[in-house]
Design a protein that fits this description.
Number of strands: 0
Helix content: over 70%
Shape: globular
Radius of gyration: 23 Å
Strand content: under 5%
Oligomer: single chain
Order of helices and strands: HHHHHHHHHHHHHH
Amino acid sequence: MNRGLIWIARHSLALALAAGFVLPMVFIVLTAVMPEQQTMTGDLWPTSWQWSNLGEVFDRAPLLTWLRNTVVYASLITAFTLVSSVPAAYALARYRFRGRNAAFLLVIATMLLPPQVLIVPMYVVWADLGLTGSIWPLVLPTLFGDAFAIFLFRQFLLTIPQEYADAARIDGCGELRVLLKVVLPMLKPAIAAVGLFSFFYAWNDYYGPLVYLSERPEHWTLSLGLASFKTVHAVQWNLTMAATLIVMAPLIIIFFFAQKAFIEGVTLTGVKG
């Protein structure tokens, strides 16, 4: 048996899993450049490559407006999550106080709570404040921390030796300076991982924008706009797939350049409990 077949046999499971992720992408790309009539047939390979479909979707829907709204929404959620979650995780990892374990268990418990449970009372509160129809009901809650981000940061902080902070305190650093000058630089891999998690979540979020922004098309995000695009152009699958490809492209590019930091951060957050 030659080396090629041996390599394929050894990596057959990985190749099968990779195919499960790659084939849908290939289907999307091929459908995006098909003529409209061919999308209703069983043909998978375009009879002619209609690259103009990628430009036509910008004429059919305000994709640039939705893209701008999504970038603002995802950037604010990412920034607010990082700013609020790092201090909370630092307190849970470094300070000993009564109820610390109970507080951490409460954070873990909130991760198990489906968002649909709180959506009605939260909507009433935001409606009373007159903020429905804007992104603020989606963004402002992240100023109080994100349970998943706090969990990952705490796990990473437990891997950093306490001696670094103790040495800084002996040199006269206050607690805030210890966090900003000593701990935060060592926390970069976890910050990169959590930042990417938050940005990707906000970019793909459909439920939140559907609840708070559905009546304001000028504030729609890409995920919400993409769903409506399918409804308005119900039979034009080539344009729908072209819009899907445009929505996915920024995430693929970001992950391609940040995958090293992302993998490192996720790996290191799980080495100590």
